[in-house]
Amino acid sequence: MAVPSPTRFGVLLPTREQAILGRFAASPLLGFARQAERPGFGSLWTGDSLTACPRLDPLVVLPAVGAVTSAVTLGTTALTPALRHPLVQRVCSAVCDWWC
Question: For 59-69, how does the pLDDT look when each residue is reduced to its tens digit (9 = 90+)?
Answer without folding.
Answer: 888 889 999 99
